[in-house]
Amino acid sequence: MKLKVLFIALLMVIGTRVATAEGDPFESKVKTIEDHARVKSLKYISYDQCYADAQDEAKNEMLSRSKEAELLDSVPKGGVLQLELLGNEWRMANGPNWTYLITDEAGNQLFRSKGNYYNEPAPGYEVRKDIVHTTYGTYVTRQEAQIPPQKDDWGRPVYIMRDQKSIHVKLPGTFKVYIIDSINDNRCVYLISRGKGN
Fold this sequence. Notes:
Strand order of the largest sheet: 1-11-10-4-5
Largest sheet: 5 strands, antiparallel
CATH architecture of the domain at 25-119 and 153-193: Sandwich
Number of helices: 4
Distance between the termini: 43 Å
Helix content: 10-25%
Order of helices and strands: HEEHHEHEEEEEEEE
Shape: elongated
């Protein structure tokens, strides 16, 4: 009996290690080739992952067959890009300043789009006090200065815009993504290789 329990426990440990080694079948590898623009993060969600998420959504919401088919037909054929873009001003971070370009490995253009437009978030304010001591008394000056509402990884005030772009063309297993900042004339380039399940 003890041998059976030990054998089952051993099989469970081996099964867990194999499952962990394989990883997520939908996960894509992202390799940075150029990093000259202010892109905080880029994530690619494959068509297969989007389709599986839509199936889960249809099941959870108990959609009718026709509504489920409609939802599954709306899944973008090339997947989705999720980005976080930085700027000292809102117009620098906002989507219309950015161009998303996808090419195959040979450089043939597959997709091009501007980022989405978003309304500027409410500004943050910083209160600054200056205390001046003179022979005639103490004076306190107080100033409110507008600052961007968020901070980057180093604590500097910055605008962070989160954008999502659906890609409606089918993409090959490996492709390049160019994120171009038109105001600062800079870009980031990423090589994306999709996982085994894609």
